[in-house]
Amino acid sequence: MALLTRWSAPLVWLALLLALAVGGEWLEPLLRWSEPDARRVLYPQADLLTLLARHVQVVAIASGLAVVIGVGAAILVTRPGGRDFLPLVAQFASMGQTFPPVAVLALAVPVLGFGTWPIIVALLLYGLLPIVRNTLAGLEGLDPAVEEAARGMGMGGGQRLWQVELPLAAPIILAGIRTSVTVNIATAALGATVGASNLGAPIIAGIVNGNTAYILQGAVMIGLLALAVDSLFARLVPASQ
C-alpha cells in the first residue's frame, strides 16, 4: 500500500494521459463546447496514441544523448587531466540554451532535412545546460574529507568515481536531468513545424485552421506527459539520497 501511495501521482497522470490518447471520442462533447462551429473537433490526421509514442521517442533519444554527453563531459573536466577544459564545456552548454530552438531548427533543416532529426538536435543542445551544470555542481561540491577517506581505503580514481562520487552526486545530477527532460517535452512540440510527427502536430494544425479543439488536444496531452515524467523524477530523486 505504501508503495502504491508513493507512486500514485505519476500513475494518475499517466492514466489520464492514456485515457485522452485512446478515448478521444468520449471527449468530443467537451471539445465541441470549446469549438462549437467547427466541422471536426477530433484531430483527424493521426492517432493520438501514435503521436504520443513518437513524442516520447524523440524526447527519449534527445535526452539520452544529452545525458551521455553532458554527464560524460562534466566527469572528464572534473578529472585532473581535464580541468583546463572546464570553462569551455560550461560555456558550450550555456551557449546551447541561449540559441532559441526555432533558430536551431532553421539551421538544422538544410543539413538534416525535414522530419525528426532537426528537433532531436535542437532538444539535445537545449537540454545540455541543466545536465552539465548540475553534474559539475554535484561532483565539485563533494566534501574533500570523503575523497581523502576513499583514497585512504586504497581506492583508485575509477573506483572513487563510480563508488563514491557519482552515488553522492546522484540527487543533484538527477535534478538536472529532470529539468532537462521536462523542458524538452514541451519544446519537442516545435518539431511539428519542420515535419516531425508528434503531439505538436495538433497544435500547429489548430493554429493554422483556427481550431481551438485541436490545440487543446495537443497541449493537454503534452502537459499531462510533462506532469507524469516530472512526478516520476520527484520520486526517484529522494530515493537516491
UniProtKB/TrEMBL annotation:
InterPro entries: ABC_transp_perm/SBD, MetI-like, MetI-like_sf
Keywords assigned: Membrane, Transmembrane, Transmembrane helix, Transport
BP term (GO), one: glycine betaine transport
Domain ABC transmembrane type-1: 52-233
Pfam entry (one): BPD_transp_1
Major subcellular site: membrane
PROSITE patterns according to UniProt: ABC_TM1
A single cellular component GO annotation: plasma membrane
CDD domains assigned to the protein according to its UniProt record, in alphabetical order: TM_PBP2
Subcellular compartments: Cell membrane
Annotated membrane topology: Multi-pass membrane protein
Transmembrane segments: 58-78, 99-129, 188-208, 214-237
Family named by the database record: Belongs to the binding-protein-dependent transport system permease family.
PANTHER family assigned to the protein according to its UniProt record, in alphabetical order: GLYCINE BETAINE UPTAKE SYSTEM PERMEASE PROTEIN YEHW (PTHR30177:SF32), GLYCINE BETAINE/L-PROLINE TRANSPORT SYSTEM PERMEASE PROTEIN PROW (PTHR30177)
Protein name (Swiss-Prot/TrEMBL): ABC transporter permease subunit
Annotated organism of origin: Halomonas alimentaria
